[in-house]
């Protein structure tokens, strides 16, 4: 039986035809295997740099004074400036959050400065807690409806700020919160500060009592111009612009002009994103 | 760095390519799939040359990688096969009846049983080597071989 089996398996195996390309296939695989090994050993040092960066981020996370020390570089050479206050990264099964929060510094009125900073800090901590709790709810809902816990993709959340204008007279910056899942989680905060009088800049303070009418006229004119140019966001009917609100969001651009911002969905279909209108002073 | 081990692996794959291909084909039953599995196994083997501790076991070590690739591929394809009932292969003319019986006997074995028969009687491996190649313990290999033989005998005695 033993010998017969040997003979038969040999026969069986040798009846399997050898394809012509077998030799080529093996030679190519050997080449590829060797090349990819070299690549791996080349990438290894890079991976340790990445690890070091992670540790650095970790250190920032642990100690806020360290974060402040590490990032207190002026953005523009004037006295008043925007600094990074808190910087951290956190990963859980529900979310991956990257946070960089701003503080203002160097204002001539330190109590006003403190008030603004406290307001920013309180607001952002609230937002962070809110969205973290929301993603955890989303994850629980995902599991409750039969999803496997390991299949839940953590929501990527970013809180960041962007300086728009920093002159001797004005400071304008925005804080954005974005999430990888729902656009509804996105949010932008606007801060415009008059450095001379230490107060918030309002559209009224720029355009006077009739600011709503002035700005509405400016926006209507620009929408007409965009329509004429064939901008699809304004061509189809549906949503349309009527008036700005007294609490209209805006920032001040490099040129020093206010830019009115309408969030996604506000005056156009959501697909066209937020809309911006610069209104000259 | 591992150039010596890599050379050993590359030489093994190159010198035994026909046997390796046939093993993969026997497992998967398809030319393209067998070529792919062998190609992937060769690449992984070279990339993980580090994990080959004892060069004298290069052969069983390589078989193990190849068989793992084949098993994974087979599982994927079996799910697909269930949706597409496969046709019976026609018997070719000119082959001796007994050979056909034995061949069909081997083909009728499950892949698990077939591989132990091939490694034992075609590759002439010892039980301990088969155990290494399959990542199973020796008693499992022994019982698989005897189960496979039992099935073959039953078929031959019909």
Describe the overall structure.
The complex is a heterodimer of chains A (281) and B (158). Chain A is 44% helix and 23% strand. In chain A, the strands form 2 sheets. In chain A, strands 1-2-3-4-5-6 form a 6-stranded mixed β-sheet. A 3-stranded antiparallel β-sheet of chain A has the order 7-8-9, with helices on one face. Chain A is an alpha+beta fold. Chain A contains 7 helices and 9 strands, in the order H-H-H-E-E-H-E-E-E-E-H-H-H-E-E-E. In chain A, helix 2 packs across helix 3 (64-71). With 158 residues, chain B is an all-alpha fold. Helix content of chain B is 76%, strand content 0%. Chain B has helices at 3-15, 17-28, 31-47, 58-83, 97-108, 111-122, 127-134, 138-157. Chain B is globular, with a radius of gyration of 17 Å. The N and C termini of chain B lie far apart (57 Å). Classes of the chains: A alpha+beta (281), B mainly alpha (158). The A-B interface holds A 1-2, 4-6, 8-16, 18-19, 21-23, 25-30, 32-34, 36-37, 40-41 and B 1-2, 6, 10, 13-14, 17-19, 21-23, 25-26, 31, 35, 38-40, 42-47, 49, 99, 102-103, 106, 117-118, 121-122, 124, 149, 152-153.
What labels describe this entry?
heterodimer; A: 281 residues; alpha+beta; three-stranded antiparallel β-sheet; 7 helices; 23% strand; elongated; B: 8 helices; 76% helix
Secondary structure layout:
The complex is a heterodimer of chains A (281) and B (158).
Chain A: H1 2-14, H2 22-62, H3 64-71, E1 81-91, E2 95-105, H4 110-144, E3 155-166, E4 170-179, E5 187-194, E6 199-200, H5 203-207, H6 211-228, H7 232-235, E7 250-252, E8 258-262, E9 275-278
Parallel strand pairs in A: 2-3
Antiparallel strand pairs in A: 1-2, 3-4, 4-5, 5-6, 7-8, 8-9
Helix pairs in contact in A: 2-3
Chain B: H1 3-15, H2 17-28, H3 31-47, H4 58-83, H5 97-108, H6 111-122, H7 127-134, H8 138-157
């Amino acid at each position: 039986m033993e010998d017969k089996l040997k003979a038969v398996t040999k026969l069986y195996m040798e009846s399997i035809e050898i394809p012509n390309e077998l030799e080529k296939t093996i030679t190519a695989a050997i080449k590829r295997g060797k090349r990819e090994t070299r690549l791996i050993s080349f990438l290894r040092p890079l991976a340790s740099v990445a690890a070091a960066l992670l540790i650095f981020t970790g250190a920032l996370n642990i100690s806020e004074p360290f974060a402040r020390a590490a990032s207190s570089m002026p953005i523009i050479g004037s006295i008043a400036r925007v600094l990074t206050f808190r910087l951290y990264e956190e990963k859980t099964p529900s979310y991956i959050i990257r946070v960089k929060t701003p503080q203002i510094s160097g204002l001539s009125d330190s109590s006003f400065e403190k008030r603004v900073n406290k307001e920013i800090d309180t607001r952002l901590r609230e937002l962070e807690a809110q969205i973290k709790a929301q993603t955890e709810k989303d994850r629980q809902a995902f599991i409750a409806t039969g999803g496997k816990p390991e299949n839940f993709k953590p929501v990527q959340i970013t809180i960041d700020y962007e300086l728009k204008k920093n002159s001797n007279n004005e400071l304008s910056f925005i804080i954005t919160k974005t999430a990888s899942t729902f656009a509804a989680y996105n949010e932008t905060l606007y801060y415009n500060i008059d450095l001379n009088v230490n107060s918030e800049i309002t559209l009224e303070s720029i355009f006077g009592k009739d600011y709503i009418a002035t700005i509405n006229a400016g926006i209507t004119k620009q929408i007409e111009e965009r329509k004429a140019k064939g901008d699809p966001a304004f061509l189809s009917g549906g949503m349309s612009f009527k008036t700005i609100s007294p609490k209209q969001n805006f920032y001040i651009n490099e040129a020093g002009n206010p830019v009115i911002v309408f969030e996604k969905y506000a005056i156009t279909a959501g697909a066209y994103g937020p809309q911006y209108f610069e209104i000259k002073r | 760095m591992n150039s010596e081990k890599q050379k050993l692996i590359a030489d093994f794959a190159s010198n035994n390519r026909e046997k390796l291909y046939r093993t993969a084909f026997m497992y998967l039953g398809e030319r393209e799939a067998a070529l792919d599995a062998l190609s992937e196994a060769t690449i992984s083997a070279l990339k993980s040359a580090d994990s080959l501790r004892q060069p004298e076991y290069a052969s069983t070590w390589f078989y193990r990688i190849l068989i793992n690739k084949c098993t994974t591929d087979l599982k994927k394809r079996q799910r697909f096969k269930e949706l597409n009932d496969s046709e019976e292969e026609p018997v070719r003319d000119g082959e001796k009846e007994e050979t056909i019986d034995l061949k069909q006997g081997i083909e009728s074995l499950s892949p698990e049983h077939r591989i132990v028969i091939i490694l034992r009687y075609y590759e002439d491996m010892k039980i301990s080597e088969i155990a290494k190649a399959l990542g199973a313990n020796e008693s499992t290999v022994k019982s698989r071989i005897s189960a496979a033989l039992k099935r073959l005998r039953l078929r031959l005695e019909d």
